[in-house]
Amino acid sequence: MAKAFKYGLKGIRGHLEPAERDLxxxxxxxxxxxxxxxxxxxxDPLAALVGLDTEAREPSDxxxxxxxxxxxxxxxxxxxxxxxxxxxxxxxxxIGALKAAALSLDRDNLILTPDDARHWATALNDVRLVLAxxxxxxxxxxxxxxxxxxxxxxxxxxxxxxxLVYNFTTWLQESLVQAMVHSLDARR
Amino acid sequence: xxxxxxxxxxxxxxxxxGTVTSGDVLTAPDIPWNLVIWNDPVNLMSxxxxxxxxYFGYSEAKANKLMMEVHKKGRSIVAHGSKEQVEQHxxxxxxxxxxxxVEKATGGNxxxxxxxxxKRG
Lengths: 188, 121
Known about the structure:
Chain A has 7 helices and 3 strands. With 188 residues, chain A is mainly alpha-helical.
């Protein structure tokens, strides 16, 4: 059984069972594959090099829209222009954090440096944003309903399984953030 | 209690001492853009507050106050600055997974805000 992350002298320490590590690895990989930009045949290599993506569009998938939101609420044109300059590097940063978190799962001891912890926090957050869209969590009442699902013996369909996975990642992220808050307080 | 009154000069000062480099001077025409954080049922309250503390360098009290504002009112203006500054903050917030947008500030400074237009590119 996983243990909550704790801040101590060596950094932030966690403990995960092999099955929990496998689960998290596959969740991180899923979100990485969602975020990986598609290869384009006629792309301007110089534009790609500086992070410009002239073909960027607002994603049609809700989860992707939540990961890569518009920068302006009521101006789609300005949001699209901004997206062309920034979305590629945003995707790459998110993928970098997810990959770093996945990589640290290969270590025997899960002791996180401040950088590791930041990668883990954003990686878990992105995973939760995607799961929440798949679970149709639209408001706090939806979130509360999902939260009621705590017993793995109840997992009899995809939705209840996703709810349990969501609650596990929520618990893990909360314990990590508490540990990060402790480390922030300790440094001041 | 209204947001803009409560946060005006205080936020600006914190932004300057936080992530904005000391070389940046906030001149009047460059001020009138807001960074807005929107509520969602997924992001943990502790996480949102942590991001405000670690990224903007806000105090725990200020970070919690802004976080509660997001939670209860649905949105909160968490920083001001030039268009470029708040856009940079917005990308950083998207990196953390927070739902952030930028908007032109309404009120006193809005009339002189044409200067920021077309700067990008």
